[in-house]
Structure to design on (606 residues):
């Protein structure tokens, strides 16, 4: 599928040839590995490099939006053994940008990781790749071989004193490994159960060594930032929200896919780029940042611009940039039921509030959806989320709670209708046709 | 399964060695996820004896390997059909027909989730987000092959192709 549309291509400049343009020759032809060469040949200092990334105000593209340069600066200088880890465990429902980045421009991720390794003084790195995308993992292994053969990985890279090697680690189906410390546990060959923080990975990371973990898109942005300069990159977006961002648009649009736009692009523009609403139907709600982000009703999202601050002000999160679009054929109770099932299924079971709470949320939403809801259930759901949020080792409990609270907050009357009338407000046939799976008139 | 059958072939062990080489010499356990995948590919599923053989090869406790095998969704701890089809029904896929695609496969094969056809050919699983929501409906065949835009015609073709 590749890129559908873009306003200001940066990360996606290499995507135009689709599956034919990912190799090292194509990457070099479009200026690839030039920044790594410049950093090494000019003997750029680690401080200058980190300062440039700070200037760009690149914020972590995995969901939390933490400033990348600041994260790198937390790495202890003196430690002899450090690691760089890339989080390509892209399993947040609605998110599919890193898969395409890895398919169409794996060398940008590799170059970004090598430069990050130089900046923080790491000798080795791992890229943790989502279990379900085996073909992408295979391609990345091939890209690593190409980079090694070309002298970009290994000892004394490009004749410098800097040595760095990079490996791919393939997941095998666990949403929780997208949480950075769960991911580290998984690389160590264990269950992916998150660790207590502090200590943060910058002090105690992979194998107990200082580790910097960034998202795939974050690493891929690094060569571009160095190419244009941090200031220019920042100015592509808006203050405190530097650069461009990949948005994965799914659901009820005519052209689902990935879109690269400057931070601060109006949601309405993004929706237009995605071909508008499927079948010309009416927008009902949008989850703007992956399934863990609070849902926003149509009128609220239509006034938003796509950047961390605007979406946060509207009461949600930009998260991973996964925009899930829902039209009037959606039963919000059924939609929430599926999301709640997901968190229940993927809770790692380590913390009681999450393990038990996610089950409570799913079962109560399930009974409302199936006509067995009780008048007190909405209060019950909110109370359960109170007992989950902020009470666990990682953010999965919060991620399970946010959809529940926001769906009830914004679509309360639909939940009440369900409880009272024991059926959906949206009639089942309308819901069935909404998915586009069945051709009109067919059985 | 007896212990002889649990052992891995020299080719599988060579592949595991390549995985072990990615990690520091004292961190062989890091290769357990990949080693279990290699073992599952070879055996079709993961009997306890095979998990124990993997653990022994990597110098870790059998229970530590079993913890991994039972934690991650794509390890099969019970026999599955020749073709394991996993359908994503999570919300973004469902909005574009994921649930309906699963129903369609169920009807065609006459089985429900977590069941195998009588001839041992197909097993059907419900999957969680595969990170390809723009291609919905999405299915995985035998964990490694992703199939996109699976509308009725594409599903018919896929099932016919699985001999």
């Amino acid at each position: 599928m590749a890129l559908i549309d873009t306003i200001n291509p940066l990360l996606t400049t290499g995507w135009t040839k689709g599956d034919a343009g990912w190799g090292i020759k194509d990457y070099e032809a479009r200026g690839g590995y030039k920044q790594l060469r410049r950093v090494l040949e000019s003997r750029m200092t680690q401080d200058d490099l980190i300062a440039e990334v700070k200037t760009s105000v690149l914020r972590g593209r995995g969901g939390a939006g933490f400033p990348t340069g600041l994260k790198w600066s937390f790495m202890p200088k003196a430690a002899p053994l450090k690691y760089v880890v890339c989080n390509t465990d892209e399993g947040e429902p609605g998110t599919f940008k890193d898969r395409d980045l890895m398919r169409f421009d794996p060398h940008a991720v590799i170059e970004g990781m090598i430069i990050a390794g130089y900046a923080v003084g790491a000798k080795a790195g791992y890229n943790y790749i989502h279990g379900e995308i085996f073909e992408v993992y295979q391609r990345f292994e091939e890209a690593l071989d190409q980079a090694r053969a070309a002298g970009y990985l290994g000892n004394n890279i490009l004749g410098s004193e800097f040595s760095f090697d990079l490996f791919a680690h393939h997941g095998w189906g666990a949403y929780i490994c997208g949480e950075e410390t769960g991911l580290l546990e998984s690389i160590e060959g264990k269950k992916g159960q998150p660790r207590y923080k502090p200590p943060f990975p910058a002090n105690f990371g992979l194998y107990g060594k200082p580790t910097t973990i960034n998202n795939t898109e974050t690493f891929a942005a690094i060569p571009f930032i160095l190419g244009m300069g941090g200031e220019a990159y920042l100015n592509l977006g808006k203050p405190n929200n530097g650069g461009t961002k990949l948005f994965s648009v799914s659901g009820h649009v005519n052209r689902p896919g990935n879109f690269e736009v400057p931070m601060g692009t109006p949601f309405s523009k993004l929706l237009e780029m995605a071909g508008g609403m499927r079948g010309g139907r009416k927008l009902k709600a949008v989850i703007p940042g992956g399934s863990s982000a609070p849902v926003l009703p149509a009128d609220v999202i239509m006034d938003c611009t796509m950047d961390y601050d605007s979406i946060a002000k509207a009461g949600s999160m930009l998260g991973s940039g996964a925009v899930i679009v829902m039209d009037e054929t959606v039963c919000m109770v059924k939609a929430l039921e599926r999301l709640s099932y997901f968190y229940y299924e993927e809770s790692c079971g380590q913390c009681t509030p999450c393990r038990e709470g996610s089950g409570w949320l799913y079962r109560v939403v399930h009974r409302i959806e199936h006509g067995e809801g009780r008048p007190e259930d909405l209060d019950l759901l909110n109370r359960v989320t109170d007992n989950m949020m902020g009470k666990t080792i990682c953010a999965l409990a919060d991620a399970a709670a946010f959809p529940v609270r926001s769906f009830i907050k914004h679509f309360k009357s639909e939940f009440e209708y369900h409880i009272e009338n024991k059926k959906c407000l949206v009639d089942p046939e309308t819901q069935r046709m909404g998915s586009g799976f069945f051709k009109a008139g067919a059985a | 399964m007896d212990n002889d059958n649990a052992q891995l072939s020299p080719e599988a062990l060579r592949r595991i060695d390549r995985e072990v080489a990615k990690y520091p010499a004292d961190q062989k356990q890091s290769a357990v996820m990949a080693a279990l995948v290699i073992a599952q590919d070879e055996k079709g599923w993961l009997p306890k004896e095979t998990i124990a053989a993997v653990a022994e090869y990597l110098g870790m406790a059998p229970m530590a390997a079993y913890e991994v095998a039972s934690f991650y969704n794509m390890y099969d701890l019970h026999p599955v059909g020749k073709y394991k089809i996993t359908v994503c029904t999570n919300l973004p896929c469902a909005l574009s027909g994921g649930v309906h695609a699963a129903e369609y496969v169920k009807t065609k094969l006459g089985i429900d989730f977590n069941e195998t056809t009588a001839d041992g050919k197909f097993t059907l699983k419900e999957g969680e987000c595969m990170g390809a929501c723009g291609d919905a409906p999405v299915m995985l065949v035998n964990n490694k092959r992703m199939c996109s835009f699976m509308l009725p015609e594409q599903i018919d073709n896929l099932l016919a192709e699985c001999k």
Notes: The mean pLDDT of chain A is 95. Chain A has 19 helices and twelve strands. The longest helix of chain A spans residues 352-369. The two ends of chain A are 29 Å apart (CA to CA).
